[in-house]
Amino acid sequence: MSSSTSSTEGIVAGYVGRPHGLDGSFHVTRPRAELLAEGAVLQVAGASREVVRRAGTDQRPILRLGGCEDRDGAEALRGEELRVPRADVPALEAGEYWAEELEGCQVHDGEVLVGVVRRLVALPSCEVLEVAREGDADLLVPLVRDAVRTVDPAARRIDIDLRFLGAS
Predict the structure, then answer these.
(1) Taking the complete model, does pTM exceed 0.70, yes or no?
(2) CA 96, CA 73: separation in Å to the nearest integer?
(3) Which of 135, 130, 100 is CA-nearest to residue 116?
(4) N- to C-terminal Cα distance for the chain?
(5) DSSP-based three-state secondary structure for 54
């Protein structure tokens, strides 16, 4: 797992970080490098902007966007989300999901509502769903076949096995 035109649609590809140099380039924080190719069109601060330069590494990319021509322009965007419209997001393999697809999904064990996915957390061994439960501590559900029976982002539903998790 890795995870339109309004600021709430699309996949977050990273955030505008500190400026780099004088030409409008900036560091990207929390990057999803596969979404930040030169020529990609990103939504930032309510506007569509093309990536006209990409440097750095996949872990620490440096971008310059069309319409951002100097250090002040880059500084003005600092902290803004860089989003890729869903229509432009590359397809994932079967059984893979973008975090944004899973956040907010209801989590069930059969017909019993367990809670709602708050976020996806990357741990060293696997990714886990952080499930907010009403009146109880959050539940961490590893994204492994034994713990997760089905994932249906379109229906906003994930079915898990509480007995496997030792939480029944």
Answers:
(1) no
(2) 36
(3) 130
(4) 26
(5) strand
